Amino acid sequence: MKTVDLRSVPAWVRQFFHPRTLKEAISFANTCIHEKDCFLLACLLGILHHQRPGFLSYPSSHLVPYLRNELFPRAKFPDLYGYRDLRSRLIKKMSRALAMQMANRTLVVGESTVLHHPVEHLSLQRQVDTIITSPPYMNALDYRRDNRLRLWFLDRNITDYAPEPTDRKSAFDETISGFARNVVSFLRPGGACVMVIGDTISRKRIKTHPAERAIEILTGFDRKLSVERVIEDRIPDVRRSRRGAQAMKKELVVVLRKKVKTGRKESKNWSPNTSTSR
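Structure for site-specific DNA-methyltransferase (cytosine-N(4)-specific), as requested:
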């Protein structure tokens, strides 16, 4: 791999890291991309930025990248702005990730953005018992902006971040339809599809009901699917990426079940007013 020249790195990226740390991180990311090692690349992205010592950046938030230099001024916390070696932190991250593996289980992991593509991209070739996922929140979050630092490490050609596709209802519908074709179609009879979906919100003068729309698309795709339960899960303010903001206040955990041949009692149609609290 070529030596990393930080002069080609955007200033907004450089401000997050000690120069030596940034060179190591970019070089390692380049190697992972070249070797197509998704596991190691994911481990790198997982420790890219935070305020704790086990992460690579200067003190910053974890979910949405922004520096916390007012909370941790350099003059008062000089150690937090020093070089952070990649090797030791990456080994610890890998150890934590590998320790969480489930024995004797097949776990299929796929990024939501690839669900439009043929199912071979997810290595899903047989029926599965359970699907657990969280599709992009329609008209609620800006994933590109919120993950801009990680995205830059994946693709250095990104110069700007266009509006989130799921701002448009048609794009959200396309995402859920792709999920139905490429993943839900492999759910075995009696199996469950569990989705964590953003609640009904009003944004940009548009009121959206993403859970209702997702259920409509999935049950329309497979008539054997029916809603078993919808659980309302309120989000504590300490868990929100923007505390005290007016955005997402709760999520809906939607459980759909695929009917078996012997017959399973159909659930009533769901509406945004029929969920149960958790």
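The first strand starts at residue 128 and ends at 133.
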